[in-house]
Fold each of these.
Amino acid sequence: MFEEIGTTAEGDLLINVGPQHPATHGVLHLVLTLNGEIIKKVEPHLGYIHRSIEKMCESLSYRQFIYVTSRMDYLSAHINNHACALVVEKGLQVEVPLRAQYIRVIMDELTRIASHELWWSAMSMDLGAFTPYFLAFREREKINEIMEETCGARLTMNYMVPGGVMAEPHPDFQKKVKAFVADFKKTLHEYDELITGNIIFQNRMKGVGYLSPEDAISYGCTGPVARASGVKSDIRKIAPYDVYDKVEFDEIIETGGDCFTRYQVRIKEMSQSIRIIEQLIDNIPDGDFQAKTKAVLKLPKGEFYQRVETARGELGVYIVSEGAAQPYRIKFRSPGFSNLSALDHMVRGYKIGDFIAIMGTLDLVIPDIDR
Amino acid sequence: MTNEEIKIKITEILPAATFDETGEWLNVFVEASAFRSFMEQIRSDKDLDLDYMFCLTCVDWKTHLTMVYHLSSTNTRHCVVVKVKLDRDKPEIETVCDIWRTAELHEREVFEMFGVNFLHHPDLRLLILPDDFIGYPLRKDFEDPINMIKL
C-alpha cells in the first residue's frame, strides 16, 4: 500500500500511495515526499482509468454521448446526464416540460444524498471507524432501490435525455421517495451521534488541511470544499437550472476551512437536499415527461457551455459544434480534477496520518478526475 | 458588469483585442504575444476582478489551435471567455498557472493532449498518458492503430 521508491538528494523519502490503495477508493497514484512523518510534497500521477471520454464523444451523436458521461463521476451519474441534457437543450432551444424538470431535480437531489452517504461511510472507514459504513449503506440502499425501479439501474442510470427524462417514473415512485424522506429525517441525527461528536474523530479533523478562501478560488475548488472555506460556489444558486430557482434551500457556507468544516458542510447539505425533495415531491405537475425532439439532433454552429452542481462541485460541459450530428469538441470540466490540484497545497506540513483525513474530505472520485 | 462595460474596460487594457458576442458570454480574442500581460491586467483589475478560472481547454481547428480560457468573478459573477489562436506546427503560449493556480494541472493536460508548449510552466510533464506515449490524442489527425476511436 505504502511503498518506498527512493530518496531525494536532500535525504527525503519518496513513497508511493496507490495506484492500489484502500483510501484512494480507486486507481489514484500519488507520490509523497516525506521528511520523517512530515509531508513536503504530493505529486499526482493520473491515467490509470483514463478512457479518453472527450475523444469518444467526438464520434458519438448527441443522444449517445450522454450514456458515456454516467461513467465519469459514477456517484453523480444523474447529475452528469443532467448537465449533458441541458447543454443539448440549450443548443436546440427546447422547452422542457415542467413534469420532467421536477423529476430531474428530485433525482439529482437523491443522487446527492446517496453520494454524500457513500462519502461519509468511506471516509469514516479510512479513519478507522467501520460501523458508519453499514449505517449509511442502509439508507443508500433505499435510494438505489428507488433508482432501480424507475431507471433500471442502480449506479449508471442514464435516465435523463435531451428534452426531459426517458420514461415515466415507476407508479410507486412518489410513495417510496416520501417514505425514504420520512425515514431519513429520523435517522440523520444518528450520523452525528455516531461520529461527529467523537473526540478521536474531532482531534483528527479539526485544524487539519486548512484551505484559505483565496486559495480555494485560485485552485478552482468548488462544491463542499470551497463552501467550507467560505466561498459561495453553488451553481444551483449562481445560475439556476430547471426548477432550482423555484425551490427554497440554503447554500451551506462555513468559514473554518479545515477537514472538520468540510465534513460538516456535507452533513448539512444532506438535510438541504431533503428540503428540496419535500417541496417538489407532492407537486409534480401532470403532463409530458419529454419534449418532442427530432430523431437526429443537430446543434447549430457555435459554442455551448452548461454548469451544474454535482455532489463534488461544479461540472462544466463545453461543446463546440460545427452544425453536424456529432460534437466537434467536448470538454468536461470535472470538479474532482480541480479539487485534486489543491491537494498538494493542503497537505504540505501535515503528518502522513493527516493525509488520509485530508484526502477523505476532498471526496475524490477517480474516474471523474481521469475521464 | 454588463458585456458593454466589460468591452470598454478590456479595450482600455488592450486596444487590439477583438470581440464576439454571439455566444452566452463575451468572447475576447487576443494575440499570443500580448497574452501574458493582458491576463495579468484583467486579473488585477479591480472592476473586472476575474479571480476564478473555471475552464481551460484547447480546440483543434485543423488549420490552427485555439486556447480557450473561461474566467469568472466570484463577487459579481460575470464571465469572460479569452481565446488565443496558436500556430499548429509550433504552438507556444505563456503559462498562467501563477495567476490562477488551477491552470497548472489543466495546462499539463492540454500539453499532452494537444502538444501546446506552455512557456515558463514549472513542471510541464505528461500527466495522464504513459511516459513513452507518442502523439497528441485530442488532435483531429491523431490515429490510434491499437484502439478503436476513429473519427
Amino acid sequence: MAPSWGHPNLYLGEIFNMAAAGISAPQSQDAAIGQTGAAEFGAPKKYTTESIVGLAVLGLAIAWIIWSFASGPTLFLQVLTIGLSNGALYALIALGYTMVYGIIELINFAHGDLFMLGSVVGAIFLEQWVGQKSSSATAWLWLAATMIFAMAACALLNVVIEKLAYRRLRNAPKLAPLITAVGVSFILQNIGIQLNGSAPHSRSSVLPKTSISVGSIDIRIKYIVVVAVTIPLLLLMTWIVQKTRIGKAMRAAAQDRDASLLMGINVDRVISFTFALGGALAGAAGVLFVQVNEQTRYDAGFRLGLIAFTAAVLGGVGNLLGAVVGGVLIGVIQSLNDGAPHFLGQKWTQTVMFSILIIMVIFRPGGIFGANQQEKV
Amino acid sequence: MSDMPNTPTAVRGGGKAPVLTITDLHVYYGNIAAVKGISLEVFEGEIVTLIGANGAGKSTTMRTISGLLKPRKGEIVFEGEKVSGLRGNEVAARGIAQSPEGRRIFPRMTVLENLELGAFLRKDKAEIPVDMERVFELFPRLKERIAQKGGTLSGGEQQMLAMGRALMAQPRLLLLDEPSMGLAPVLVDVVFEIIERVNAQGTTILLVEQNALAALNIGDYAYVLETGHIGLQGPAADLADNEEVRNAYLGLA
C-alpha cells in the first residue's frame, strides 16, 4: 500500500489513475476546491431535461426583464442604478468570503459580522470622534479617513481572528473550523451590541442628498459615490492578486499549499494577508453601507453576509471575478424586484434571491464561472 | 539484517562532513509509525538513492526533510544546521528544493509562472532568466509549452516542470521523489539522463525511486528502506549486485 496518510484522497486517486494509464491525463489536482467537478455533471454537453428547464427559466427571466424595461424605462433604469450600488457593496463582502474559501476552504460565517463591525466603528469614528454629521468638504475628507480607519480595523481584526480561532484548526476535520466560524460570528455580534446597542442606531450621512440627472433618470449622488469608491478598490485588489509577489504567493497557496511551502512561500503569512485583504474590503463596505442607509445595527451582518455569500456561490465560490459578478447580479436582481415594473415587489425579494440561489445550485453547482475555471484565490 | 558489511562513511565525501545527516528519524501519522529510526547521510556531489517498496517510508522521509511533516524523534542536519522542526518555507530558504511525489505543479498557473515560483525566494533577479534558459535547455518541451497552464500538460511534461521548478531555486540539495512515476518508458530514460546531467553540473541529489534498477545505475550510494527502517545500504553498484536486492527489488533472481 502507498502511504496514504495525510494525502487528500483525490491526490492518491490521481496517482492511481496515472499508474493505471501509464501516462497521466492532466487533471486538476484540487478539483475538490469549489464544486467544479460536480459542475461538469451539472452542465452536460447534450441537452437533457434539466438543461432545457434551466435554459427555459433563464429565457423567462430575460423576457421578464425586457418586459419590465419596456413598460417603464425611466423607472427601470433608476432602480437599476440602486441595484448596481448595492451590488458593489455585496461584491466587496463576497470577495472576503471567496478569498478565504479559496485559500483554506473555510466558509467564514463570521465575515458578515466583520462587515457589521466595520459599519459600526466607522460610524462611531466619523460621528462621535470627529463629529462630522453633514455634507461638507471637510466631512468628505474625514469620510476618506473613516474608510481607511475601518479598513485597517477590520483587516487587523480578521487577521487576529484567523490567528486565534482558525489557524490551529487548519488540519482538523472541516466541520471544526466551520462551527468555530459560527461561534466567532456570535462573538462579533455581541461586540456589535456593546458598541451599537441592540436596537438599530440611526446615523447621518455626509454625502450630498441630491441627485444628478442623466436624461430623464435621476441618480442619487450616494449611489454614484459607492460605485466610484468600489471600482478602484476592486482594481487595486486585482492588481495585488495578479501582479504582486504576495498575490502570486496567494494564488499558489490556493492551488497547492504543500507545493507552496516547497517553493519557500510562507503560507501562514499568505493566509494572514488574505484575511487582511478580505477584512479591509468588508470594512470599506461597512462605511459605504452606513452612508447609503444612514443606520447601523448589530444584526446587519447576518442578512448582508448571507446575501454576499449567495453572491459568492452564484459566481462560484473561490472565484474572484465570480464574486464581483455575483454580487452585482444579486444587487440588481434585488433592486429590480423591489421597484421595477411587473416584478413581485419588496416582500418577495428575499424569496426571489434565494430561489435563484437554489436554482443555481441545482443547474450550475460550480457557479457562473464554475465550468471554465478562472483564477481562484 | 544486512548480510553485507556497511561501507564506512569515511570513504564517502573525501573526508568532508556530509551535506545532509539524518539521525534516528521517527515520523508518525497519528499513531501509525511510517518511519522508525532512519539514519542516513548525503555527501556533496553525490546522487544518493533511496529505494524500497510501497509504504516503506520513502516519501515520508522526503516530506520530513522538506519540513512538510514534523518528526516525532530524531534530527535532520543540513550543512551543519538543524533543520528538523523548521517549517517548509524555512527549509526551502536553507537551500533544499524538492520535486515532490505526484509532481504537485500549480495547475492553474502557466509553465512560466510555475518556474518563476520555483525562484520565489531568490534575490538575484537578474540571474533568474539565465537559469530559466538552462531549464529550457534540459527540457526543451517546457519552452514550447511556456504559456500553457500547468494542469493541461501531459504527465511527462508535468514531471519535467516539477523538476525544472525545483532547479529554479538553485538548490544545494535537490530532493527528487519518484521522478519516473507514471511516465512512458522512453521518458523514464530521458529523466534519468537529466538527473545525471544536473548532478554533473554540481547539484547534490537525494533520489527516491521505485524504478530501483535505474536508480541504482545512476546513484553513488544507496539505502534500501524496509517498512520504516533501513535494511541495506552501500555503494549503489554493490547493491545492484546484491542477491537480496536483486530478488526483492529488481526482479532479477
Amino acid sequence: MTEPGQLTDTDHVAAPGVPALAEPVVSLAGRRRETLHFALRNKKVVGALVVISGFLVLGLVAPLFTDHGPNEYVGPPAAGPSADYWFGTTTFGQDVFLQFANGIRSTFVVGLLGGGLAALIGMTVGFVAGYRGGLVDELLNMLTNIVLVLPALAVLIILHAYVGVTSVPMQAVFIGLFSWPWVARAVRAQTFSLRSREFVDLARLSGMRPLAVIRREIAPNMSSYLFMTFILLFGGSVLMAATLDFIGLGPTDAISLGLMMNSAVHWSALHLGLWWWFVPPGAAITAIVGALYVMNVGLDEVFNPKLREM
Amino acid sequence: MTLQVDDLRVCYRTLMGEVRALDGVSFTVADGEIMGVVGESGCGKSTLGKSLVRLDNRMKHVGGTVTVDGEPLPIADDRAMNRFRFTSVSIIPQYAMSALNPTRRIGRLVADLLDAHGMSYAATRPELVRRLALVGLPETVLDSYPIELSGGMKQRVVLVLSTLRDPALLVADEVTSALDVSTQRAVAQTLVEFRDRGYVRGMLVVTHDISLVYQIADTIMVMYAGRLAEKAPSDVVVTEPLHPYTQLLIGALPEVGARFSERRLTGIPGRPPGLRNPPQGCRFRARCPLAFDKCAEQPPFVEVAENHQVACWKAGS
Amino acid sequence: MRRYFGRKLAIYALTFVVAVTLNWIIPRFMPGDPVLRMLTRTSVSNPEAIAPMRAYYENVFGLDVPLWKQYVNYWVELFQGNLGVSVWLFPAPVADVILHAVPYTLALLLPSILLSWWAGNKVGALAARSTWLDNTALPVSYALTATPYMWLGILLAWGLGIVAGVFPVAGGYSFELRPDWSWVFVGSLALHWFLPFLSLFLVAFGGWAIGMRNLIIYELEADYASYLAALGAPRRLIRRYAFRNALLPQITGLALQLGVLVSGALVTEIVFAYPGLGHLILQAIQNQDFFLLQGAFLFIVIGVLVANFVIDIVYVLVDPRTRTGMQGAA
C-alpha cells in the first residue's frame, strides 16, 4: 500500500478481506468508465435520468411552439383540460400548460444555479477550513455554524421583501447564498480525514501548492460525494424557490411552478374546483425532486461497491 | 483433537464473479495447540479464521467440512451456527478497537450478551472480574463506555469477553497489528496464558507477523493464494523452511532470518495471483526462483517429515 | 460539559446578533433605499400609521444620527420589546400581533415534528428488516419527502376539505365562534388544526423514515454488530443496538431540519389560512407591513435557536460519548 493510485483503488473496488492486491491498478479513466458502466445499469439512476430529462425537454421545447407568453390571456376562463389547452386554463384564461412548461424552465434554472452556487461556496469553505486548519478553520467553522442555524427561509423572506426579486437567476443566487453550510461541514470533515492520508502527504512533500493538492489529490477522491451533494442541493433549491414563490415573493418577471400554486390558491381555484391549475405544478416539483433523491440513492450504490446488488 | 478442517472452500461474491479466497484447505489443531497462520495480505488467512466462526454476507461456503471436538460445524448456516459461537468457537476480530457498542457500558453489553445466551450476568460476573484482573483491568471498566478506554484496554476487554465461556477454539485475527511493539508482546503472552489456564483449548493466531507468532505458536501454517504452502512446528518453519515462499518470507524478516539481516528489507518481488481466475498448477510459480516445468501441475500438500507438510515439487526430493 | 454548552451558546448568541444586524442592515443599505420606499408606500395604504411609524423611524433609522448610534438605538428598542407598530393591524404593536399568532404555529409544529420523528423512525427501522415494507414504505417515503409542503396541503384541503367536505379548510376555528374554553370551541380548534397538522406530519415523516432506514442498515454493518453476531448474539439484540445508535444522528438531523420544518409550517398555514406566523407573514407582505415581517423574522430565529439548544441538551443526555468526552475522562 505505498502507491497513491493503489490506495484509492482498494478503497473503490475491493471487497473487505480481499484486498485489491490481485487486481491490476485501475487508472482514473478506467474508474470513470467503470462508474459509468454501473451507473447505466442501475435502474434507479436510469429511471431518474429519464424522468428528469423528460421534464427538461418539456421545459425547453414546449414554450417554443407558441407565440404567447405564459401570462397572456389566450383562452376561455376556467376551462378544463382539452385538446386546445392540455392542462386547461386559469380563471383569467391563461394557458396552464404553457405556464407549466415555462415554470419547469424556471425550476431547472433555480436548481442548477442555486444548487451550483451553494455547492461552490460549501466546497470552498469546507476545503479551505479542512485543509488549512487552525484559526482559518475556527473562523470558517463559526461562520458555517451561524449560517447553519439561521433559518434560511426567514432570511430569504426578509431579503426578498426588501430587495424585490425580479428574475429567476437572482432568486437562485439568493437561495444559493444561504444553503451551503451543511456542505461545508461535510466537506470539511472529509478533507480532514483525507489530508492526513499518505498520498496527500506525498503530494505535499513533493512541493505541490495547497490549491493544487486540493484540486488534484483531495477533490478527485471526493468527486462522487461532491456530485451527490450537488444533486441534493439542486432539490433543496427547487423546494426553497417553490416556497418563496408560493408566499408571494417570487420573481416578478417570470412564471414558476410555485407562483402557479400561489395564484391558484389566491384566486380560489380550490373552491372553484379548478384542480388542473394546482395539481400539475406540485406534481412536477414532486416528480423532479423525487427523481433527484432516487438518483442519489442509485448513485450511492454505483459509487459505493458495498451497496451494489450482488 | 480440537479442530479438524477438511478441504474447506470459501469464496467471496463480487460483481465481477466469485473470488476463491479459500481453495481447499485441510489441517487439524490439537488440544492445547496454538497454531499461527501467516501469509501476505489476501492469501486467505483472515478468510480462514472468519469462516470458522461467521461467514459475512459476502462470503459463501463452497465445500469442505469443519469439526470441533468431533461435532461438525454448520458453517454455511448462520442461524444454526449461533449455538456454537461463543461457547465452542470464538473470535477476537481484527477490528477489536471498534468491536464494542460505543453507546453501551461494557458491563451492560456483557449482560445483554449473556442474557441472550440464557446465562446469568450476576453469576458470571465474579469470573469476569477475575479474568479482567488477569489482563490488568480493574473492575471499573465494566462501568465504562468504550470511548473511555485506550485501544489496548479495549483489546483486552474483547479478549476476555470472547473467551468468557472457555471456547474450544479461539481465532485471534491480527490481534496485534494495531498495537505498539511492547503491547504486542504483552497481548501475545496473554494469549499463551489463556491457553495454559484452559480458558481456550485450541487457538488459531492469524497474523502477517511471523516473528510474533514464532514466540507463541506451537505450529506455523503458511498460506499462499488461498492454499496451504507449508505447515510445521514453529522452530522448523523458521529455521528449516522447505517451501521457497516460506524461505523468502523468512528472508524478508529482519529479526528471525539472521543471515539476511544486513540486507535491505525488500519483501518478495511480484504480487500474488488474482483469485478470480487463479492460474493452473503451483500458484507461487510466477514468483518462485526455483520454478520448473513440473510446477504447471499442482503440487500436493504432503508430509515430508514428521509433522512437516509442504506443497512444493522441490521440497520432497 | 460547561465548555461544550458555552461554545454552543456562544454560537447561538452570535447567530442572534447576526440576525438582528441583518434585520437592521437590509432595510437600511439595500439599493434603492427601501426605507424611503417603505415610507412612501405605507402612506398610501394606511394614512394613520404614518405618525407612529415616523417616530419609530426617526429613533431607529434617524438619518441625522451617526450610523453606530442608529444601530445601538435599534438594539435598545429591541430589548424594550419594541418592534414597531403593525401597519396592517394598526395600531397594534408588532410584538403583540406576533405573540398572538405564535401559539397556533407551535400547536402545528411541535406535534407534527415530534410525531413524525417518532413514527418515521419506527417505520424506517421496520423497513430495514422487512423486504415487503422496504418495497412499499420506501418509495412512498421518497415521494412524500420530495413533495412541497404547500402542495400536499393544497391537495388535502381540496380532497378532504372541499370535495369530501370532512374538514374545514380555512382559519384556526369557525368564524361563528368567539375564542373561549368551551367544548365547542376546542372541538372547532381541533377540526381546523387537523389538516394542516396532517400535511406537515406526512412530508416530514417521509424524510425521517428514509433517514432511519439508511442509518440502521449502516449500523447493522458496523463492527460492533459483526462482533456481536460472531459471539452468537441473536438478531434481536443487534437490531436493538443498531436502532438506539441510529437514533443519535436522527436527533442531530432534527436540529438540521428545523429550518425546513419551520418553512413548511409557514406555507402550510398560508394554504389553510391558519392564523399563525406564516399567515402573518403573508399578510405582512401583502400589506407592505415591514415591521411585522421583521418582527416575525426575529421570532422565528429565536424559536429556532431555542429549539437547537434544547436538542443539544437532549443529545448530551442520550449520547454517552459526548458526556465522557466533555468530562475529559478518556
Amino acid sequence: MNQAAPTPKDNQGDPVVRIDGRLKVTGQASYPADIATANVAYGVLATSTIARGKVSKLNIEDAKAVTGVLDIVTYGDMDNIGKPKFGNTSASSIAPLHDRTIFHDGQIVALVVAETFEAAEEAAMLIHADYEDEQPSAGFESKGTKTEAAAGKNPMLKEDPKAGDFDAAWANAAVKIDEKYSTPTQHHNPIELFSTTAIWQGDQLTIHEPSQNVTGWKVELARQLKLDPANVRIISPYIGGAFGSKGPMTARTAIVAVAARRIGRPVRCVVSRMQAFGTQTYRAETRHRIRMGAGKDGRITAFGHEGWEVTSRPDPYVVGGTSATARMYDYGSVLTHVSIVHADRNTPGYMRSPPETPYVYALENAMDEMAAALGMDPVEFRRINEPAKEVIGGKPFSSRSLIKCYDEAADAFGWSKRDAKVGSMREGDWLIGMGCATAIYPTAVAPCAARVRLTSDGDVRVQCGSHEIGTGVRTIAGQMAAELLGIAMEKVSVEMGDSALPPAPVSGGSISTASVCSAVMQACETVRQKLFAGAVGKDGPLSGSGNAKLDMADGKVGAETGKSAKLADVFKAMQVGAIEEYAEFAPKGSSPEALKKLYAGQPEFHGGEGDEDSVKYAFGAEFVEVRINSYTREVRVPRIVGAFAAGRIMNTRTARSQLMGGMIWGIGQALHEATEIDQRHARYVNRDLQDYIVPVNADIKQVDVILVPEVDREVNPAGVKGLGELGNVGTAAAVASAVYHATGKRIRDLPIRIENLLA
Amino acid sequence: MSDAKNHSGLSRRMFMTGTVSAAAAAPLLAKSTEAAEPSPARSAEPRELSAVSMRINRQAYNLALDNRTSLLDALRDHIGLTGTKKGCDHGQCGACTVLVDGKRVLSCLTFAVMAQGREITTIEGLASKDGGLHPMQQAFIDHDAFQCGYCTPGQIMSAIGCVNEGHAGSQDSIREYMSGNLCRCAAYPNIVDAIVQARDETRKV
C-alpha cells in the first residue's frame, strides 16, 4: 500500500491498478494520432489573422507551388457539405470554409495537404489572405458587443433560479456583502494535441480523433457529410487528456474528411498548440456580482448572484452556474440572473466543471467575506447555513455530506491551529494563510449500452463505447464486471472508444462511471441469472440447490449451502462456450425515446436539479495553506486537503487521482491560468505552453485527498456520484481565502498573481 | 522557410552538419565535430533528403529524411515508434523526451539529422526483452503516476534522466528537475513518489 492506493472504507472499492497501466508506461497505448496509417498525407491548417471581417481574396498560389503539396481545401470546397450546428455534439455553428465571414481570430481559412508534414507546414505559412477587416470586440471591455439574457437560450440554463422576496430581505439584512468577481478565459490545453485522421474505403469513413463522444460525432459527422451514420466510424481508444475540449466536434473533422476524399488518400491533421487556441473551445470569461445579506446570527437571508459571460457572435453558449450556487446553502431568498455577451471570439465550450468552477468561485469568495464581516469562523458560518432542503424547488438532497467533509478535512488540515486574525501567522519571511471553500458538482446519469461476454475459461470481455480520458473508466468497468462475475481482474478485458461498440453517452458532466457501471451491472446480472439457471437446472452441477442465494466468486458459482461449482462445469452442463449479454440501461425517469436518443448521439441527462424526487449533488470541502513571501509576494501552496463524499467509490486509487488532479487544477485556476487577450485585435496572446501557465511539478507539494464514505441509493443503480469535476470546484476560492488570511488583501479577480499582492 | 542561405552567407545545412570550417562558427560546432561517426550524406537543398544513421533502442536505422524533420517526427512518422508523444512541438511540455546517448533530450527541438550516429532510447526500449518492466515503469504503475497517460512516456524518460543526472536526491529536487514535463491530469505528487521508489534501482540499470 502506498498513498496512491487508499484503503477502502465503507461503500468503497479496491484500489485496483489501472487495466491499461502497462500499455501506458510502455508506450503501447495508441492515441488517435499514433495509429499506423499507410500512404497517409499530412494536413496543416491555415488560420485567419483578423477577428472580424471578410476574406476578400485568399492567396494560395505560393503554397500550391511548394514541392509535395497535394491539395488545398478552402472556400468553395465545402459547399456541398452540411454546416455544423451549435449544440452538444458540435462546438459551434461557425462553418469556416462555407462562407468568407471571419467571426474570430485564428479561424480556419484553408487546409493544406502534402506528402510530408514539413511541406504542408511550409505551404500553410505561405498562404495569406486579403481582408475587408472591421474593428473587433474582444469582450466585456469592448464597444460593439451584444448582451442578452441567457436563460432559455441554451438547455444549460432553462430559467434563472429564484426564491422568496430577495429585495425585501436584502433591504432588511443586518450585514451585507455586495462585491464583484471575475474569472478569465482559460484553455483546456490537454497535452495531447488535437488531431483528425480520415480514411475512406469506398463510401465508408473511419475517423481517428480524440473524442469524448464517439457516438454523437458519428451521427453529426454523417449529417454534415450526408452519409448514412452506419458508414461512419469514430475511433478513439485512448485520449490524451480532454477536460471537455474533446466533447464537441469542431469544423475541422469534416474538412479533413473532405480533403481525404478529394485526394483519395488518408489524411492526418495534427493541429499545432497555437492553432488549437482559436479552433477549439475554451472556458468563457465570466464576471459576477454577488449580494449577500445575513443576520447577526449568521443566517443568510438574501443571496443575489448575477453573472455575465463572453460568447461568440452566433452561438449562445451559456456557462450558467447559478443552478448550483442558488441551491448551495439555506438562503432566505434568492435572486439570480445570467447574461451572455456576444463578442468577436470563437465559441466557448465545456471545461472541467464548466458552470461550477467560475460561479462557485464567486459564491465561496462571498461566503468567506461574509464570515469575516460577521466575525465568524468560515466553517462555522457554513454549518449554520446548511440546508435541510434546497431552497429553489424545495426538494430534498438525495444525500449531502458536506458538513462531514468539512469536519474530516478540517481535522486532517489542523484548522483548529489557525489563528483567525488576518496576517497573524508567519514563518521567517513567509506570511502564512489558511482558507477553505466548498466543492459541489451535480450528479447526473445518462442511458448507456454495454455488452459483456463470459467464456467457459473464465475470460470476461466488456464492450462499451465510452471513453478513457484518464478517469479510469476502463478499469472501473472491468472491476464492476470482475466483481459481479467473480473473476480475477487479470481475466478481464475492456474495449472502449469506438462508435462501433454499444453506445455510451458523451464523457462529460461526470456521468461516465455511473452510466457505464449501471449498464455493465445490468449485463452482468443477466449473465449471472443465465448461469445460475444452468447451475441449478436438471443437469446442472448445483441441481436442487435452488437459485435464491447463488453468487459468483473465485471463478465459481456458489450456493448458500456452501456447495460450489466451477464455471467450466456450469458451461458444460449448459452446453455453451460463452454467454454474451447486451444491456441497455435507461435511468429512472427516462422518456420512452431515451434509448433511441442514445443511439442518435443525443442522450438524456438525468439527475442534478432536474429530477422530480430530489436534487442530486456530490460535495466536498477543501482547505489550503498558502505561503506568501513578504518581500517578493510570491505565492506558494505547500499543502491542500480535500474531503469529498461521492456515493459509492468504485476504485479508491482512480478516485483519489482524479480528485487530486482536480484540486491541482484548482490551484492553477487560482494562481496561474489565464488566456491573455489583445483587446485591440481580439486575439489570444499567450497561445503556447510556455506563456499559458499551468501548474508544474515544482508548484505542487502536499495534496491530501480524503474519501468520505457515503451511501446514496437514489442517484443510479451503481450508487455512484461522478467526481472527475468535483475536485477543482471551490479550490480557487479556498486559495483566495487563504491569501486574504495571510495578507488582508481580498483578490476577487483570477488569477491571483504577484502584482495583485504588491503594496 | 524557402531560403537555405542566411544573411551571413552560411547555409543552414552547414550549421547542422558541422562541416563548416569558419573559425567563427567553431564553438557552435564543437559538439558535432567530436562525434566519431561520419557526417551523413546531405543535399544542399533543405527539402531534399539526407541519409541519417542512428541506433534506436539498440537497433540500427538508416533513414532518408527531410532536413527539417525533427527527431520526434522521425521516430513517430518514419520509424513507427509512436510511444514518444508530441504535445507542443516547441520544447515546452516535455512529452517528447527521449534519451540521446543516455541524456534526456527534447526530440521535438532536435533535428533528426543531429542524431546522426547517436544512440537513442525511447519508451519502447525500456522494458527488457522478456517483457520485464524498467523499475521506473513499474513505479509509475504502482503510484498511479498518470491518468490519461499521454505525457507518461516523456515523464518516464525524463525521470530516468533526472535520476542519472543525480537530481533525484530529495523530493524538492525531483520536483524542480521534473518541472519541464507537464502533466495536465496533474499526477505530480504520484510522479514524485514513483521516482523516489525507483531511484536506487534505476541507478543500477
